[in-house]
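Risk register update: the risk of archive-format incompatibility is retired. Evidence:
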Amino acid sequence: MKKWLSVLLILTFMLAIAACSGNNNGNNTNTGTNGGKASNTPKETEAAAEENFKDGKYTTPITLSTVWGLNQNGSVFKEGESIEDNVHTRLIKERLGIDIKYDWVVTNTNDAYKTKLRLMLSSGEKMPDVVVYRGDLETVNMLIDSNQFMPVGDLVDKYANETYKAGLELDPTIWLPISRDGEKMALPILDYAYNGDHVMWVRQDWLDKLGLKAPTTIAELETVMDAFTNQDPDGDGQKNTIGLATGFKNGFANWMTDIGFVFGAYGSVPGQWNLTADGTLEHGSVNPATKNALSKLNEWMNKGYISKDSALFDETKGSELFTKGEAGIIFGPNWLPAWPFPDLKNNVPGASYKAYGVPAGPDGTIGSQGGNPPANGYIFINKDSKNPEAILHYYNWFFDNLANPQPGSEFEKGFAEGYDYATLPDGSITADIAKYPDLFPGLKDQTAPPLYYTLTYEGARIPTLYADTHVKLAGGAEPVTPYEKQEFNTRLKENTDAMKVVMDQVSIRKKNYYMGPLTETMQSKNELLNKLLNETYSKIIYGQQPIDSFDEMVENWKKSGGEQITKEVNDWYNSVK
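Archived output:
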């Protein structure tokens, strides 16, 4: 981590002014690491902002500038609308007095948004009031190190509502990736807790046809995979199926098509920093137990249980093995029935699937990545913003109105009629645009949920709400609140049941204990070390190198920077635990 420069004497006067502004008690100063500016706004500016914001709205509208990358979910607009002018931007201006302006917008394919941000950073170009980023920590670090954004701790204390604060307090380590010298340098965007944790999805129709039970151990999994590979489960008379859909082009513990569970069955999780018995952090990819997992994967490759093209497939491409009806098992989150599993229904009429728990290893060990703080992205606030508190007023509004709307409230049915929902003559609501196209004027084929236009990606999410709701519904309870009804009406039962499987197995989740910034050695050695790990893993799995080459790789990993990185990671951990 780059060391911050000492505050120059010439900034002493600025610090003295900043000391006049306070947090909740009005007299706390915070000098931070943002070029010597306090994280609080100057007293005059803060007082003016408070005077201008009355009854939940800026009496004199203010402008909040930002930049944006159009993602797939948020790029469907009604005729005549765009990301710059739509039902969301108009409503926010009407209700909050905030006029959102976009300095630039790109279609976010091939990381176009990240690329443009990095070009701005490298050229020293002035950033807008707010920059939102969801993605790699390297870019997060670059944004922090640009010295253009302010600490946010005092803003949270003063302006965040209780719902947002409660979500942040669920896991204090949520701040670690974005903290510098004790300062919180960005606002975490809250996500649903455990929403990315894995279950084992199995073709239930294949199990039933072959008279098999869902596997609970690695040994039982092998029996099922053998049957799926060799007993013609699709009934076409050809040997064209495999046991497990995998894709490890991007690594060996992925968000979908995961094989990290194999490593977890032997006591480690690759690609992350795990807590050892002696209280230190260890990179899971070099744990000796990894050899057993690699040996097992090599065995599965030789027996045809996994695709010979797995090393060429990323998560999405690997999932097609399942959705095309070629593979009978895939590991991934609870929400795969929403995407990409509809493709399975289209490709294989009559196919059925079900979620089961992650299987145990030979000694009963079960391990799967997950349980990390419920954050999915960050909001950076420009230290020169005239209204740094505005984004918190904005986020608060979504927590108050749309995160968990109550019966009878304005947004109980959705964000905007004709966009994300429509009301049928009997009073029920629908999002079926194919069946009711006239109820969604200006749209074709797809609804346009405005929450995906928001500066926080999905409006606002209360971390505990999703899991609690689905566990309740899976137990047979009737939905009561609008949120519960929406989840009940829009999620498949398989999705709901899968979330209960996640929560029933919550103790197996293996948290990544290093969430700090890239260390000094990581910045120069990560690419080399990751290449060394991934190439060795792949060659062992494909039988191109003997299993004992793992030991030689570990020694090379340590000598090439891994040992120093391990020291740096543990120094960080000891400083924050």
